[in-house]
């Protein structure tokens, strides 16, 4: 067993994030550049970002504000960002900070461009003052600083071998479905502080989403229909409403943080909250719920290592698959049933596209959460999609590989078309 490696992985991948991680990563890069530039009067902020970053920052509300967009994220990072807080870089914004950022954007000091990079996660921010210019490059992971350059001199540079060249799969080669299962069953619960924190913070933002009218109000609306007797107060609807409510809040700029999984707060939420909800309805012990949530998060991390941080396919498919495994565990399933749950999920929701972070993500999270519960209920009865069906193979590991092949190879053109549609739509909106 590689218990220490698993625990290290959980600490590394379950990270507190305030707001959607793509605009926050832009704000982090901007804050870091501002920290290194000489002079206080900013005359230009220039952002180059990969298409996947731009589409995820275009429509999601920046926490503590009513604004969205790469330009606003960069401006807020320059005006008020604390780079030492990483993905909580914009914690504690004031109305004065927001107005300064609005003025910076409104005066045309912030310019955003699509980067010519083969990396799906690439952010380059330059901050220029009268006296100086600093540039920060983030790549592969949301807080992985690749280069810091001040006045043409590189003062910090990551290892010469890019992270993507090392490969996520190789970096996590110690784990597979069977070793994950053994770890979850044997780990001392006192070592799972990162998972416990994810449960507490993600449940808090879910409950906030049920209390107040955030975004599309998917979770809150479903709960209202349950309270009115128009929907059943059952295990599935409870899990769906609670999980969707967390995404409603997060996508609408709720100032509460979430714990992300593999760089995504929505994935952290949808890997955690459905399992918590089902555990509560089953009256499961705290210890069993903690192990189930750990299983969910590790399965999600395992798939994401192959799937990639950003994709043209929705990440909730991955975290929903993890959640289905956790729910199966709560229902009394063993490793065979957990593998069936994976097959059921991948035979169902594979193909859901990602058209950027936005309030509507709550509907996609709701769909994947519902599928997670249904897939688990079937798997707990020993019912799994057979290898004669579509992309499903006898081995769930091979089915996962097929999902990732579709996401990484089959959607390259889809990704370009999605971004083109979104950018053109924005142009038409501005012109109308």
Describe this structure in words.
With 432 residues, this protein is α+β, with helices and mostly antiparallel strands. It folds into two domains: 14-165, 2-Layer Sandwich (60s Ribosomal Protein L30, Chain: A), CATH 3.30.1330; 167-420, 2-methylcitrate dehydratase PrpD (Orthogonal Bundle), CATH 1.10.4100.10. It is built from 18 helices and eight strands. It has helices at 3-13, 21-36, 51-57, 70-80, 95-106, 163-166, 168-171, 177-186, 193-211, 218-227, 235-251, 265-281, 286-307, 316-330, 335-346, 361-380, 396-408, 412-431; strands at 14-17, 42-49, 110-114, 122-129, 133-139, 145-150, 153-157, 258-261. The strands form two sheets. It has a six-stranded mixed beta sheet. The chain has a two-stranded antiparallel ribbon with strand order 1-8. Helix 4 (70-80) crosses helix 5 and helix 14 (316-330) runs parallel beside helix 16.
